[in-house]
Amino acid sequence: MTSTTDQVGGLDDLAATTLLRFATAGSVDDGKSTLVGRLLHDSKSVLTDQMEAVEAVSAQRGQEAPDLALLTDGLRAEREQGITIDVAYRYFATARRRFILADTPGHVQYTRNMVTGASTADLAVVLVDARNGVIEQTRRHAAVAALLRVPHVVLAVNKMDLVGYQESVFAAIAEEFTAYASDLGVPEITAIPISALAGDNVVEPSANMDWYGGPTVLEHLETVPVSHDLTACPARFPVQYVIRPQSAEHPDYRGYAGQIASGVLRVGEAVTVLPSGRTSVIEGIDALGESVDIAWAPQSVTVRLKDDIDISRGDLIAPSAKAPATTQDVVATVCHVADQPLSVGARVLLKHTTRTVKAIVKEIPSRLTLDDLSQHPEPGQLVANDIGLVVVRTAEPLALDAYADSRRTGSFLLIDPADGTTLAAGMAGESFASQAETAVQPDDEGWDF
């Protein structure tokens, strides 16, 4: 068995991991894919055969220089149309840090994919075309970044070469965006003037903008402080699978497998199983085929309890002293991502961690107006790319944390029960017990909760 001292030392190593997850966003043709391609190329993170393929395609198009956007536009439809459709993930590293980047689409139709790319990001790079300034799609991406509580936002004012590298153009855009994002609650905003096509201030400082004294994009990505210490949050262990081999070798084995969403689990710790509320004590933890005394997020482990409790997929194991409350009334801000509207009274499935339950949309109190950040009351429904407040009643209790406390266990999806389409991504706020007794009237289709 691994010693507790060695395992606690592993927590320090985990906290010190220099990995940055970041997403790029912006409107169509703002240069996101070109920026990502420039980062990869100038940081020497492109393989020779990849570069040769880009050069060949660029030559076929009659372009004199390689089109670095092709390094991320991986889908055939993307290459043919010259736009980003899917979220393109790329992995690269410098001497100072490792990176996982998500190049998200800029077209309004694919804004939903930004939610996917930014949901786990520590930083978002929002590009703005210096010729166009802050537009509605820029404001929408800033709102999504704020909604997902991305802690760091970089405003990259791109195509400065097309406005003569004028400081006044950059300053005006930076001031407008910073004021808007600050009102949304974005905690940190860094503005950088760049030309992704020419390479100005992407990896190397620009000789054309001597009036700018801040970091390049890569320098900021390498030095921005990022905390990955999921162990500082209360432990949350969503059960994914119940293991009962019932073999002659292990006749009484019963374990609960899954990935620790946050916090630390220890053998001997008193825990509560939710939503049932039954309590027990952790008897053992198995990781990679060995018994350990301690495990932490995001490890995948099997937990064994002292008591034989009815536990199934979707249940949540948490320390009894810091167990979340359960509720059937969920108040949340959602980003609607489906083409079909989300209306009051809609029957949906709510997926939270490994648990999926029936639910009904009781209210849509407001929809966010992106122009002035005002709330449009009682819109009745949300359509694609809308951001709004919803009230959902679930058929079974959920152990939800507030999204402000945990991005992992405070988020959920609303799903169409007919075809499995994802309708909305939700971020839970407070749950109001005052309306817990106001149940939806039962019907004859099994939605009687």
Automatic annotation (TrEMBL):
One Pfam family named in its UniProt record: GTP-eEF1A_C
Domain of life: Bacteria
EC number(s) on file: 2.7.7.4
Entries under InterPro entries matching the protein: CysN_GTP-bd, CysN_II, CysN_NoDQ_III, G_TR_CS, GTP-eEF1A_C, P-loop_NTPase, SO4_adenylTrfase_lsu, T_Tr_GTP-bd_dom
EC category: transferase
GO function terms (MF aspect): nucleotidyltransferase activity
Keywords: ATP-binding, GTP-binding, Nucleotide-binding, Nucleotidyltransferase, Transferase
Descriptive protein name: sulfate adenylyltransferase
Organism name: Streptomyces amritsarensis
Taxonomic lineage: Bacteria, Bacillati, Actinomycetota, Actinomycetes, Kitasatosporales
